[in-house]
Amino acid sequence: MLILTCPCCGVTGEETEFHQGGEAHLKRFGPGSTDDDFHTYMFAKENPKGAHFERWRHNNGCGKWFIMARDTLTLEVYGTYPAQTHEPPKHIRDAITAKRPGWTWRAFA
Amino acid sequence: MSTRLATGGRLLDRSRALEFTFNGKRLRGHPGDTLASALLANDQMLVGRSFKYHRPRGIVASGAEEPNALVGLGEGARFEPNQRATTTELFDGLTCTSQNHWPSLETDIGAVNTHLARFLPAGFYYKMFIHPRPFWKHVYEPFIRQSAGLGRATNPGDPDRYEHFHFFCDVAVIGGGVAGLQAALTAAEAGAKVLLMEQTAHWGGRAPVDGGDIDGQPVAGWIAATLAKLQDMPHVTLRLRCMGAGVYDHGYLLGYERVADHTPGTDAPRHRLWRIRAGQIITATGAIERPLSFAGNDIPGVMLASAVRDYAVDFGVSVGDRTVVVTNNDDAYRTAITLKKLGLEIPVILDARQSGGGALADEARSMGIRVENGKGIAKVKGGKRVTAVAICAQAGEGALLEEIKCDVVAMSGGWSPVVHLWSHCGGKLIWDEAHAHFRPDPANPPKGASGEGFVIPAGAANGADDLASVVADAHGAGQAAVKAMGHKPKGKAPEASTLPEAPMQPVWLMPQGAKTALRMKAWLDYQNDVKVSDVQLAAREGYESVEHAKRYTTLGMATDQGKLSNINGLAILSDALGQPIPQTGTTTFRPPYTPISLAAIAGGARGPVFQPVRKTPMHSWHEAHGADFEPVGQWRRPYCFARGEEGRHEAVAREIRQTRESVGLLDASTLGKIIVKGPDAGRFLDMLYTGMMSTLRPGKCRYGLMCNENGFLMDDGVVVRLDEETFLCHTTTGGAESVHGHMEDWLQCEWWDWKVYTANVTEQYAQIAVAGPNARKLLQKLSNDDLTADALPFMGWLEAGIAGIPARVHRISFTGELSFELAVPASRGRALWDALLEAGEEFGVMPYGTEAMHVMRAEKGFIMIGDETDGTVIPQDLGLNWAISKKKADYIGKRAQEREHMADPNRWKLVGLETLDGEVLPDGAYATAPGRNANGQRKTQGRVTSTYHSPTLGRGIAMGLVHRGPDRMGEVLDFPKLDGGIVKARIVDPVFYDKDGEKQNV
Asked: Predicted ipTM?
């Protein structure tokens, strides 16, 4: 059971206080998009062995969504940051680089 | 014969006797006994039968690793199957029974299997029971189920109390032996908050039995002194009878405390589950002795050498008069020396090592014990008890050198560190060639949130093999733990000394060249009857992965999870595959370490507090008036209100008739109610619903459908526009929280610049539907406000005073009747309910339940989320295109619904189904189509989604999804029933009642 820190209210709590919401930093494809783009948006999710970006909601707390950068292999938490972000902040990316030099995740590195 | 010695037994209180029964036999023991030691003291070596061959089974071990001595403990509601006698503390009045035999333990019919063993090798079930195919369901499976399972479960309800306990500490130490005590002391002296737990009832582990000195005093004295120091420290918590059950992510640790197993009938909870968050976890879990694989090693009387010693030293029990010791290491000599000192016979020590033992061997020889180097056991003689051993050269094939009479064989194949808790959360192992065991790999510990290791092994669990290195290693572990927690390590390791030992030598099969006949009698897994020959067969048949071989042979799959058998099994597998042991690897160690009670996992969450029940303001009225409750989400809703002798069916019919003919009341308070407010609220709801909500005028209501991004229908309900900026969204009863979460997801993560605020106000309002031709008359009796069709048309709402209570009155209808839904503050709900019942008396008003509501909505062809939808249905399938806006560029799910297969005319679509003879279609029945599919099953062309008896129409009505359904009106489909019959039903319009809506629109 993971321990998470909500970047909105600052609470550090047990995983049961939160709810996982799948991959973060998705770009939505709506009407007018190609079948391929829509399919990729909807179903083709990253499944890395290493650094990963996930959406979490503090649903038994402040109710806010946030993003967690986590290592799927070691369970290390590189950090959490608000969901209203288009790309991972630099200090998160630096933390990942320190442990996993040369990492990439979709368009990020 | 096993018996109680005249003296000795360091854990016993001989001044008191305890009575207990085994299979109805009255026996006696002492406080301090385990059930196993007390049984042995009463010469009860035979304690059970094995799973497959029903072979006689005796006690093998003295601790948690015991595979054989499993008993049914207690009686009645407190009966528990598969309890290990070796870890059960004796108490006065204990009752237990042996398992897996018929008619009795001594004479068991199932033992015939042992003569069929040649025909029942590994994989027998897989090979035998596959042909002919139909036999599986009707012959094989019932037969196998009958013979499966060791103990028998009972379920009359558990009379005991269980609880959870949350605990936080810097350092949690698992295991209260010498290593655990030292590690805890080192950590505590540096200032860390420490929890030390020990699974047995005693501190100190094996050390007092094995001997040695620490800091110049005998180990028992050091244990007492160290314990006293720890007890004096306020930041140290000590717990006996508390097992480290599992290590999980980020320092989460489960402890399983058997608080009152040994004191039944006291007020204490029986078990307590410790839910611990530890900064660092030290696993001082010791080591487990390994059996040796020789023919007949499962005959009662063959035991682990350490266990024979434990029973003598700890419990003053002689397991037998003549003990042959067989070993590949020095430790087992301690057993011979201990027994000899007690005056018991050691006819011979068989040391498989050609070079023999060290100082302990010299001591044994000096006591006059015969020691044979390079020798082993070819075969054990005996049936329900050992009678003799046949000696052979370990290097040979088992030619008989000599037969020696004995009644106990004390065996030792070396020691395996208990690495389970290290491994639970991903700690890796390395193979230690010198000791022939797996031990924790210090470079690969389980890692926590910081990316650093959070588990540290200590002592024998880390591969330390003598007292001095155990103590030094444990001190180092304590220091590492406090350092990781930011404390400054203090102190130095105490000095310890024992006799030096000669190196052990791995022996995986005895003799090493044993032929098939011997290998077929050389047991690896005692409980599941897996032999050396079975593992070799698995390797020959291609089950080369250790995980496959485990499942094919069932090695290590019994309740002991292979604590004794796994290492020997995978050594045999490695040998058969011609590869080194580390290449074969181990199977996965999974929590819990030993079985823990399900009741402890449940803790206090049972009965009324299992899940909080949500109650509407009218709940107590329902309870007082015969409500037959059904769970809907966390709510309890009345299914119907039965009167007198009335059955459910009659009650539902009465409620429907009353509502259709006059007026009825529904407690609709459970409906989800979410306020959506802000300048962008309309724009947001246009994205959320398939229909257009931004054009809804204040004072109006509109039915809305909500889809997920994959296009599938997820919820529906009426949207009310309260004012220019404010909407009230009704959701299904079960959907309020998830819909609210869905809204927040899109608002926070996609359209975070939109100015919208949401609030789930479900419990702030009580809601009552007043439905039926007399609904308006009833309300008008209680209100001076104008509720006529002109003032309040269908799908409109207004604020009115009803019985003096300010209410929001909606003209919406789920029954098809003239219907008003009244929303009032929750605190006024019961008052309004009472007022409506009183004023409605002249109309015969009565409440109706959820079933009447379901039937009435089905008569009207209204869909129900969860009946007509199942996560694969889109609104277009349900003929709900009218509720999908053509003008909107986008809504959640729109793009998905444009996919080719979503727009396919061949989809199953909603229709009404009318049985030809008026009977009720079975729920979920499929309509068959001509032909069969690849599996030989009938093809299908539709299924029933809702089916009821309609009291209004006097026959069965149903809705269903049918291939091209709406294009096939009038066609008759066949719906098979479970009993083999067929119901014929005609495809009709789903609206069975008042097609033009004249009744609701008055």
From this structure: 0.97
